[in-house]
Amino acid sequence: MFKPSSYSWCCWCSVPSVKNRPSAVVHHLTYIPYNENKDELIPLNSVQNQGFGTENEPFIVYRNSQLIGKENKHLRFVCMSDTHNEIADVHIPNGDVFIHCGDAVNHRTSSRDIVRFNQFVGQLPHKYKLFVSGNHCVCLNPKQPDRSQKLLNNMIYLQDQLIDIEGVRIYGSPWRPKRGCFYRAEAFGYNPKHIREDKWSKIPQDIDILLTHGPPYSIRDYNVSTKEPLGCPDLLDEIVTRIRPRIHLFGHMHECRGASLYKSEDNRLLEGDEFQNQSNDILFVNLAVHQGKTLGEPTVIDYYY
């Protein structure tokens, strides 16, 4: 629906910014971003989502509304991102699938630290462990995903890859619009003019969960330094007009951690008339654990399918 021409550029450092783009309307479920003026959290619709994303009160998400009230298969997902060498200090609940959406390390020491991260994850009890790279993972060569998989041999490394886990289809992609030559932690930065055609358009439609490192535009992507949203508008367009996953997990923007619910009926400007009938909500979660001097908790999701 929208074109990459919505990007403008800072000529001296090649940093893209977004102009004249409609924002997604979301209902915040946990941790309202401080730049948004909300009096209270939106109550959850118990028909589609409930809980608070914690170990004792996980988010409960159904593949479709017809499964509610029936006995279904389900998997428990334990999800996190942006641990920056402090994963050992985080309480990680047990579950079926462990997910990390990037920036497990710091860019200056990433070659050493990624080995330690892999060793730590290997000790976790989860049956499946998935990893999507982040911009600090400069030791991982985008042109050699097989080599990255060998290095991260205690988990499944996803670089533009689809995986089926016991009937749940999950796609992972590490890319984000690149920010320019002054940023040292810039692994998997991609030309914003081509990121939709080259990367996002390759994401299949019939997936349950999407993993990326960076956020979509206007959803938990506020940048404190620039006072602007930093997410990718082309990623948002693909998600809401074509891919329609039940859950999108990401990180990158530390200050915007938390969960938000996207409803089609509130986003007609983005979607047109295509998805107004029987369209599932989308749960968006910014999983960034590192919060400066404190650490957040992983997000726990029970997915019924």
From TrEMBL:
Occurrences of domain Calcineurin-like phosphoesterase (ranges): 76-256
GO molecular function: hydrolase activity
Gene3D superfamilies membership: 3.60.21.10
Pfam families in alphabetical order: Metallophos
Superkingdom of origin: Eukaryota
Family, as annotated: Belongs to the UPF0046 family.
Protein name (Swiss-Prot/TrEMBL): Calcineurin-like phosphoesterase domain-containing protein
Organism for this UniProt entry: Rotaria sordida
Highest classification ranks of the organism: Eukaryota, Metazoa, Spiralia, Gnathifera, Rotifera
